[in-house]
Amino acid sequence: MKQHAAPRGLDELSEREWTDFALDVGSIFATREWFATWLLHEPGLGPVEVLVSRRGDGSVAGVLALAVERSVPRVLGPLGPWPAAAPSIVCKEEDRGWITEDLVRQVQARRGVDMLRLVVPASQAPQFDAWRGDRGVAISDRSIQYDGRTWDELLSASGRNSRRAFLRRSRRLRESFAVGFRRTERADQLENDVDLLLQLHWKRWGDEVLILTPERRALLQSLAAATFARNRLYLRFLELDGRAAAAQLSFRVGTTEFAFMSAADPELREHQVGIEMLFHTVEASIADGMSALRLLPGDQEYKQRLPSIDHPIQPMLVPMSALGTAVLGGRRVARRIQRSVQRDTGSESPSARE
């Protein structure tokens, strides 16, 4: 597999600016290691550029990382095969309007760009009418907001039936197995534990796996190592009789946790070990003082097992040239480009909750 010699397009920001920006925004998608990992391991990427929007005092307010997705028409899209940052423009929500205006104008100022593909909050889609943007189908993007609640309070808020079902399932699991949870806490455990997560994932999906294939093992290992070194990675396992039954890989930035990838042994489907793993992750997150768990885009049913808030996101194609406008008018190519958003937004998510 071809690898790039070094991350490209990331030097617009210093290491300190990347760190400060990530903490300010509270997003794993605002970290340098997120983008650098894709650039080091993904073959076939065209030129990559990181566009930056700054405040009056020079501090970083927003970032948009783009790569060439098509040559004719020339389409720029968000960097990352799955999940690209969603929304594509990483910034604070209260600043999103003016930052979007600034960054789209920056793209317009570049020659040779026919279309810009973005994923934006559905509520922001009308802003793109001024650019004659073409809207794709909105996608669910849920998060669990803790709002100072304890785990018991959050579980109770899910409804009496849901609470009873969880307690009954948890009790039965402990009647059948010796149940334990563990977290990867040492660097010398990390590589083996990431492989264990991947083995569960591949066992579940087999030949249907589309994203985190065996060929992408090195990508996930690199991302895990880079984030672990910064105390951003949280990898947990549910063990039954000492054997891994389910796993959850999350990232933490500030007080927000991002549920990046889960896996569950299909042989234990009847015990719903994936849901047990999710609930443990939420309980541990609350105990550690986190404010929210981002579940990432996708409409999987398990994301509604606990009280959550949906902030739908919407794919957009924005013409940047006369050719881009003509293509959008023709629709056929536009629809083909819009379909490519499924991989970026988790519609082909490697998560499994069973």
Automatic annotation (TrEMBL):
Transmembrane segments: none annotated. InterPro entries: Acyl_CoA_acyltransferase, BioF2-like_GNAT_dom. It comes from the Bacteria. Residues 162-304 form the BioF2-like acetyltransferase domain. This is BioF2-like acetyltransferase domain-containing protein.
